[in-house]
Amino acid sequence: MNSLTQKSDRALTAAALAALVAVLLIMEMTMKSTSILLTVLKKGAIYALVAVSMNLLNGFTGLFSLGQAGFMLIGAYTYAILTMPMEVKLSSSVYKYYDCAVHVETGILPALLLAGVAAAVFAALIGLPVLRLKSDYLAIATLGFAEILRALFQWDAMGPITNGANVMRQYKDLTDVKVPFTDIRFPPTLFCFLAAGICIGIIVLLINSSYGRAFKAIRDDEVAAEAMGINLFRHKEMSFVISSFFAGVSGALLAMFQYTVQAAQFKTAMTYEILLIVVIGGIGSISGSCISSFLFIACNEWLLRFLDESSNNILGMNLLRSGFRKVVFSIVIMIIVLFFPKGIMGERELSWKRFRKRASRRGKEAGADE
Amino acid sequence: MQFLQTPLPYLLAGISVGGQYALIAIGYTMVYGILRLINFAHGDVFMVAGMFMVFLSASLPLGLAIPLVLVITVLLGFLIERAAYKPLRDAPRMSVMISAIGVSYLLQNCALYFTGGLAKVFPQIPWISDTVEVFGAVTKRVTLITPVLTVALVIALVLFIRHTKIGMAMRAVAKDFETSRLMGIKVNSVISATFIIGSFLAAVGSLLYFTNYASVTPTSGGMPGLKCFVAAVFGGIGSIPGAVIGAFIIGICENIIKGMGWTTFSDAFTFALLIVILLVKPTGLFGEKATDKV
Predict the structure, then answer these.
(1) Is there a contact between A293 and A48 (Cβ–Cβ < 8 Å)?
(2) Rg over CA atoms, chain A
(3) CB contact under 8 A, A323 and B94
(4) Which residue does chain B place closest to A268, by CA atoms?
(5) Residue A139 in contact with partner chain B when CB distance is under 8 A
(6) Nearest Cα to A80, choosing from A263, A342, A291?
């Protein structure tokens, strides 16, 4: 019975994923590539990845880290530097004031991987000292490292590599993704979903493995976990490095999505936004993080835009104008933080089992009504 | 005197900024001492005080605007504590911190809405905005006033905490939250008092700071806020003299770094200092030993 439902659940999941791919493909064929819906979907997928990576650290391992923007910065720059064509690097169209010191050029997929690796290596290095700290001290130290990184990337002496404080552009972006072995353009939205989906899938596998259970044990009680023979430092470092790897990848994806990238963009405000996404979705729920990042991006970029239009004012009040959307938005966030501290999903995950339960409950209620 | 002339302006600026940081850092250190909370919104309260000054001085005379700014900022600090932190008193520490981040996000967005994202020019306050010459270095008079005012306020605060009943209650709550509650101390009013003092000092600091910098933007509270927290940690969190000394050290070092032409790293230096301090002497310069921070 159990294995049968498990099998059918797997089939259902596969079918749902296939349907998602099909819908995305159809949307991409029929809609304009500049359509706001596609933009929201792309950015939502990228933010879902970084939110899940932050959740792995904050929600599943109990390490309150605020360094996410820094790791995304490393990923984005690594990607931009690696995929920028040689002729662009040697000409002065991007590196105006510096001679580019990097003389390699890679494809998109290796660059994405290396972006993650670069972030992970840096995380491994700073993890050695920083992970000895606890709760808010860890938070402020990681936040500090992210700020130091931002200064470092804007430093003149790093100019030949990072182009100083200037914009990086003309690297391979989402429109340059090709279907393997052909010259056909790969649908960009589908690419974001695929890349983010594979990474999130890996994180889910990790969380369900014995390592994931060790992470949760550390979150729930460090002393008890250590007494059970879990090597605290090794597992914390592992969670930190893996989370940073995926933050790096998502930074690279963000760079692809944006066409240009600049160190000044990766401020602490960005980390705060990602943290708020995780909180809204529910700390400790992967599907919650995914849902809330799409919601967050959709509200921020699209659904609440009407609040910024001064033509929508009623009764002659000058209430609606540029920026009002963000005020409403942050009030909603405060309400969620204060009154619904569990967020959308709490610690639960979306699953077919819950759907079935809810459906049968509803069926019963309907039966009782009759 | 000749050799003093190059570093002197930077040193003066450093002492002045240090004093302004000290006034903000006290708010962090007191709140952390009592609630064990990094009040991420404190830097934004400081920014909002600057904004109020810009808007109020546009329509009111300065003699009325300045006290009004102080009162409104105090009220804001009090309201933030009541609305965003008090409901979460029994929640995990992390939720309170997230709430603080949410408040910070809200204040920044409100400021963005009311200013339209433009930098607002901070009003010239007569007398303290005047330029003066010290040993051949030209500077504003606020540079000289800040350290004096800071030291005076800190002494007043220390006396207040040592010798009044509410000050004693504050020390008791900082020492042991639960026990002091059992002893009949009204913890909530003590916490409110802490926030009121912190916001008042932040408002004074804000008036001095923005007189020096001349413009206020919605994000101009973030970086000073974080630096002041670092100053509080450096001096030993919970210790008021520690926070003041930490703030002066950070302000001076930062300006010397700027003077050496490493402006990009003036912010990074603060965080490097934080990390070194946390790893080498996590209790800070004057911190008490028995804490559970590391």
Answers:
(1) yes
(2) 22
(3) no
(4) B222
(5) yes
(6) A263
A358 pLDDT band, cuts 50/70/90, is confident
Cα angle, residue B270 at apex, residues B269 and B272 outer, rounded to 5°? 60
Both tokens assigned to B29: 């250190």
Which residues numbered 202-261 in A keep a CB inside 8 Å of some CB on B?
none
Substitution target in B254, B267, B278 with the highest count of A β-carbons within 10 Å is B278
Q: Residue B228: its pLDDT value, please?
A: 93
Q: What is the end-to-end Cα distance of chain A in Å, rounded?
A: 31
Predicted confidence band of residue A327 (pLDDT cuts 50, 70, 90): confident
What pTM did the predictor assign?
0.88
Inter-chain contacts counted by CB atoms under 8 A, chains A and B? 128
- Regarding an ipTM greater than 0.90, the answer is no
Domain boundaries, chain A: 35-266
C-alpha angle A192-A265-A290 in degrees, rounded to nearest 5: 35
Rounded to whole angstroms, the Cα distance separating A247 from A58 reads 13
Per cent of chain B over pLDDT 70 is: 96
> What sign for the dihedral angle of Cα A132, A137, A142, A144?
negative
B14-280 architecture in CATH? Orthogonal Bundle (1.10)
Alpha carbon A57 to its chain centroid, in Å, reads 13
Helix, strand, or coil here: B166? helix
Classify residue B122 by its DSSP letter: P
Is residue A19 classed exposed, middle or buried when 0-12, 13-18 and 19+ CB atoms within 10 A define those classes? exposed
pLDDT reading at A362 higher than 80: no
Q: In angstroms, rounded to a whole number, what is the distance separating the alpha carbons of residues B29 and B102?
A: 20
Closest A-chain CA to B105: A330
Q: Which amino acid is at B242?
A: G
Which uninterrupted H or E stretch holds B132? strand B131-134
Residues A71/A123, Cβ–Cβ less than 8 Å: yes
Establish if A307 touches chain B: CB-CB under 8 angstroms: no
On chain A, the residues whose CB falls within 8 A of the CB of B279 are 129, 132
* Residue B167, beta-bridge partner list: none
CB contact A322 to B (< 8 Å): yes
% helix, strand, coil for chain B, step of 5: 75, 5, 20
Phi/psi of residue A67, each to 5°?
-105, 10
Backbone angles phi, psi at B21, to 5 degrees: -60, -40
